[in-house]
Amino acid sequence: MSELTLPHAEERPTGTRLEARSTPAARKKVSRGLLSSLPVLVVLLLGFLAPLATVAAYAFATPRTFDVFRSFTLINFETIFDPANTVWMSFAWSLGFAAATVVVLAIVAYPIAWGLARVFGRWAGFVSVLFVFPLFVSENVRLYGWTLFFIKNGVLDGTLKLLGGAGPEVLYTPGITLFGMVYVYLPFMLFPMVLGLAMVPKELVEAARDLGASRLMIWREVELPLAMPGIMIGMLLTFVLAVGAVAESKILGGQSVIVATHDIEIAFTYAQNWPLGSALALILTIIVGALSLIALTKLDLDRILGRR
Amino acid sequence: MTAAALAQNPPKPILQLVGVRKTFGDFAAVERIDLDIRDGEFLTIVGPSGSGKTTLLRMLAGMEAPSDGEISLKGIRINDMPPSQRPTCLVFQSLALFPHKTVGENIEFPLKVKGVAPAARKQRALELLRLVRLPETHYGKNVMKCSGGERQRVALARALAYDPEVLFFDEPLSALDYKLRKVMEKELKDLHRESGKTFIYITHSLEEAMVMSDRIGVMQSGRLVQVGTPEEIYTRPSTKFVSEFMGEVNVFDAAHENGVWRIDGVEGPANLALPTAMTSAQKAAVVVRPEFMRFVDAPGGADNCLKGVVFNQYSLGSRIQYQVRVAEKTFLLELSRANARKAEGDEALIGWDARDAIVVEA
Amino acid sequence: MNQSVRRSNAFIWTWTIFVLVLVYLPIACGALAGLSKSRYFGFPVAAWSTDWWSRAIDSFEVQQIVKTSVAIALIVTVVAVIVAFFGALAFARYDWKGRRLYQKLVLLPIFFPQPVLGLALLLWMNAVGIQPTWQTAIFAHLVWIVPVVTLVIAIQVYGFDPTLEEAAADLGAGRLFVLREITLPILWPGVWSGALFAFLLSWGNFPLSLYTTGADSTVPEWLYAKMVAGYTPMVPAIGTMSTLAAATLLLTGGLILALLRWRAGKVAA
Fold first, then answer.
1. Lower CB count within 10 Å: N or C terminus of chain C?
2. Is B361 helix (H, G, I), strand (E, B) or coil?
3. In chain A, whose CA is at the least distance from the CA of C119?
4. Which residues in chain A have Cβ-Cβ distances shorter than 8 Å to C107?
5. Does B175 or A145 have the greater pLDDT score?
């Protein structure tokens, strides 16, 4: 039974050669993850952290100059927080729009998410694709479609005229801006919600029903708490994206209100005041970043994405 | 090979472990193990979950590096040799069959790695299919469409295709139902004999170990507490843990007082006859298997007799198990149906002979 | 199924279909506008014409922006998939010290308003002296698309049994052999979905392109410029074409994906 030869006899390293390659073995195992993450980390460093650092640097530069890193002043922030100034208005509008978007979307998306997780069965995949697809169409094209719908002599107005009425004047109001945001960010609320609801084991719902809980009670005591991580991600994502939204107010809102990002853009372009724009962008970044970091630290992504 | 022949001329060790340890942070999963694994033997490591047996196996297969100690294969230190270069092969608990490959492609995988020509690969795969008793028509079958038993055989054939010196098994049969497991245990033993390779198997089932192994090693919290033939483990367990791991046994502490042995929890001297002279010791644990216990008609009908009350009986199929309460202690008896003549609530005199009692460290 | 469950299911279906109609309504309005003969849109459409479509196809300017958009999307796809493939392994496959932190870092660009990110990138490029062109837009797209593709592939990686790699290595296979024979083929559907996402998201992206393409222009950017000033029915016509192109690609990609899954589940007998 020992006339077998080692299959890799020729490649088999001798004792001394083994020693040479032995030490890094343990270290290599630890860092394989780090090694694989490096390309992504480089992209994030150069494309995300570095630009934000630049914004932060510009925010403390002398207004209407480009001498970043050479001057340090808080004057940009003083301008923003000066009550005589109306810059804070745009932030108030943006935060208000974002909060309203989250509330409306939570109500709009929940039944659909529930359907995708529980009701649609083999149709769920197809319905999901229908909701994903608009993400691949640029939002300005889709928003412009709404303009064509609501505009004078447009689809709505034209139809109502045929019936003897007239379309409501909704374009170029803050309300339609909110509508546009709800429309654009629907998928960002919907899919995290579906992930969250999919995390609720069916047996738990059945067990609760078996123990005599009413439907409302099952929802409040079992389903909602267990689906919360996903719902939280959806709410956070839509809030954060809506705070920075600009296309909706420009295309549908007709600039009836100026939102935060629009103000930043004006500072960067027409006003040629990069330090002021940067200070505004920095404030927005801090709001968004603080919210994201608080929520993200609480989430176990392995559980949400990997169902582990 | 008979036990006597083995004792006279023990085969050279193929794998040698000296002081092997594995720690994860402060936790020692495997604690200083010394073990010689003989060329061509079927060695089973048994232990409850968390006893470190999987960690030990993964170190042998090269998937973990020992924190301390030395593992050598045929005299060459292999501590840090990657699994791909070891002439050993592991059959995983999950079997780890490649789901995107057919049965044939799975078996041929190690040959493809070595660069064997397709025609020769196929020929070898068909041979191996025969060896593991699968029809040749399974060659092109989707491996995910195979039954549990078929998958076991494919995993085995794939491991054999690598032509390893040592095959490791990480409880591969645990997912099978009882009947199929029994069949596979015996086939594995046949295959071991036919291939002549060294098999190292880990399991938590001592029953499985008994059927297949030449030798069994019992692990408890990272330590190897006893290594021996199935016979030795069964008849001469070295510790209370090993004896209890063997199945349901009667274990009781005995104390030596004034020249008489007493059983804890039993009033009065027990007239405990022991197989070995234990006069020097003050305390011992005594193990008596339920099948060695019996009902006796009168005191003196066995070396040791105790009076108790039957309070439960269970059918084990061909045998009946009784639970008999003696004072605060419960004793188990296993009797054939012919000898089962007591009912629940009956007073009973139970007894056992001194030669059937095993004394282990307390 | 009792009556109240049936009633609530009916409500959920009705609501979903209603929302879906709203989702596609503006896209349909755009299609109508692109096919009407008159320069200014009016409903009901008085006269139909494919004139604006053929004009758009013949326009040299439009051909240029389509070329730019396709070039950006193709390069973004290739780079994003390679970077995100390894990124997803680090996200979901390997157990390493900084993994939790890394997972959260990857999400940050997704949890960030794109117009602000675009402006920040513009500022940064200016600070280091890089002239924005369509090539810099590739980089801008990557910042947002790499994390998305990483997540898409990571979901597939979570379902991947790491013992398969161990088993292959145990049978003598080297790292590259394992990658080629085991890891890649099993993760292929995820990689493919990731590629599809990368291309389509880049194709439809507006806010990042707006600030980072410099003098060059992508299709969404060009459309926006014309919406603001210089509307002709060519705008909705091109918008519709762009949408149809994305739909065709999604359909083809989806079919290939289904084929991949089907083949994985039914290896030739």
1. N
2. strand
3. A265
4. 292, 296, 301
5. A145
